[in-house]
Design goal:
Distance between the termini: 46 Å
Strand content: 15-25%
Structural class: alpha/beta
Length: 492
């Protein structure tokens, strides 16, 4: 990316949706525009954990307004990230599908640990360079992220299902502020966060930072009341609690620095901040300027620079963890990508990268069992926390791993995607050709795609020289029967 490039991040939070637009300037991203709308999707989950039609519509309406501002942006310059509410929602695919169409860019639902990693990147990028050991706390609408790190590198990340919207609905549902309600909310928050007491204890960090809406709101109220700007202290929290108890009800809270959209969730937010201060023995917390959206912007930048895409490092780590045969995985990956390049349309570089990752990971299930190892591998990818990956990306890899052997019809619902079908054909072809676990002779071998017909052709005499490979490719034609795709092996 060149200096002057515009990048954008959309943060679909449980309380608010945010749009951050920045301009690249010598490795830094400078803010151009920031938009925020209170959507409160976190309060729109029904008893069955489905987003209500009204909550979905509020989200779609906001995305439509963001889409107008993002008109003309390239796909690789925009990242839309959804967090806890959409992780929980059973009908999230309905919202994501329509929301992506409205926004004009794909929406990624990220895992809790991945959200925490992005938050840390956003906070660290906007702090002065320092060797200090940092604790970063981000209290969202339905989740709280805790991160330990130094400079730009997080060393521990965790996400807990406790947030200002959820806690306000549970402990202050009628808006009443009582000492008993705050005590109950703080005790419940500490119960959820209890396992963090040891992992994030005070001797492991030098400075505590808080990011995003809840901490920012608390910091603003305290600063307006005369407390130190950008600092939250225990005394300040005690004072704030006293002010809320005097108001007795959320509707009667009138404090300078508290925005209207925060009044309904300030009770839950303050109770969580107080719980974290007590649990982790925090004396003071610095309000950070960076957050998830800035982390998503810098992640876009990292993905575009060769050798810096965290996902590649994550794939290598998974290969090591599950004792993958690296030489064989490399052979399959190179050949699969070579075949894909012959048939894929222009602009398929991202799809080729995902194919390469799937090829490198296609045998991770062997560590569990050689029987149905493709199913084990798919399960691992669907249920692992993989740094740098959004949940839909991991699911796409899991489908390729699941489909790399056996009948293809089990993926019938996904075969309507032409890019996915071509990725799968190339992966299966490469695995067949690398069956002997050595570099195959593929000189003169070509793969072409015409409509829904995929054809593999060889040079004269190849089939006689490599009868087992030829047999496997002809068998592949049968695997694609009764699907929308035809695989033909024209081997001489």
């Amino acid at each position: 990316m060149q200096d002057g490039t515009l990048l954008a991040a959309v943060d679909l939070g449980s309380n608010s949706f945010r749009l951050e637009i920045g301009r690249l300037d010598h490795g830094h991203i400078l803010r151009v525009e920031y938009l925020k709308e209170t959507v409160r999707q976190g309060g729109g989950l029904d008893e069955d954990r489905n987003l209500t039609p009204a909550a979905m519509q509020r989200g779609w309406d906001c995305l439509a307004r963001f889409a107008e501002r993002l008109s003309g942006f390239e796909r690789g310059h925009v990242r839309a990230v959804a967090t806890q509410t959409l992780r929980e929602a059973r009908n999230r695919e309905d919202f994501i599908r329509r929301g992506s169409e409205i926004l004009g860019f794909p929406i990624d639902v990220v895992s809790g640990p991945e959200e925490a990693r992005l938050i840390y990147q956003g906070v660290a990028r906007l702090l002065p360079q320092s060797d200090e050991r940092r604790l970063v706390v981000d209290i969202g609408g339905r989740s709280t992220e805790l991160i330990l790190g130094q400079q730009f590198t997080p060393s521990a990340v965790a996400s807990y299902r406790v947030g200002s919207v959820a806690w306000s609905a549970r402990y202050f549902a009628d808006g009443a502020f009582t000492r008993e309600a705050f005590q109950a909310a703080e005790i419940a928050a500490q119960a959820v966060l209890d396992e963090a007491a040891q992992a994030y204890r005070s001797d492991l960090w030098d400075v505590a930072y808080g990011s995003s809406g809840t901490v920012g709101a608390v910091g603003s109220v305290l600063a307006a009341a005369g407390w130190e700007e950008g600092r939250i202290t225990r005394d300040g929290l005690d004072w704030l609690l006293d002010q809320l108890l005097r108001a007795r009800h959320a509707d009667r809270v009138r404090m300078e620095g508290l925005k209207e959209d925060r009044r309904a969730v300030i009770g839950g937010g303050v109770s969580i901040v107080r719980a974290i201060f007590d649990l982790l023995r925090i004396d003071q917390m610095t309000v950070a300027q960076g957050a998830l959206r800035q982390g998503a912007l810098y992640d876009l930048l990292d993905r575009e620079q060769p050798g810096t895409d965290l996902r590649t490092a994550t794939v290598r780590a998974l290969m090591l963890r599950f004792a993958v045969d690296e030489a064989h995985a490399e052979c399959v990956a190179q050949l699969a990508c070579r075949l894909f390049a012959q048939a894929a349309p222009a602009g398929s570089e991202r799809a080729a990268r995902k194919l390469e990752w799937a090829a490198r990971l296609h045998e991770i299930g062997c560590r569990i069992s050689h029987s149905d190892y493709h199913r084990h591998g798919a399960y691992i990818l669907d249920h692992t926390d993989a740094a740098g990956f959004a949940l839909p990306e991991l699911h796409r890899l899991s489908l390729l791993v699941l489909g790399h052997r056996g009948k293809v019809r089990k993926l019938e619902a996904d075969l309507g995607d032409a890019v996915f079908a071509l990725q799968l054909m190339c992966l299966r072809t490469a695995i067949a050709l690398c069956h002997a676990r050595r570099t195959p002779d593929v000189e003169g071998l070509a793969l072409r795609l015409d409509g829904n017909r995929c054809t593999v052709r060889s040079r004269q005499g190849w089939a006689a020289a490599y009868p087992q490979s030829a047999h496997l490719l002809r068998e592949e034609a049968q695997a694609w029967q009764k699907t929308p795709w035809e695989f033909v092996a024209e081997l001489a």
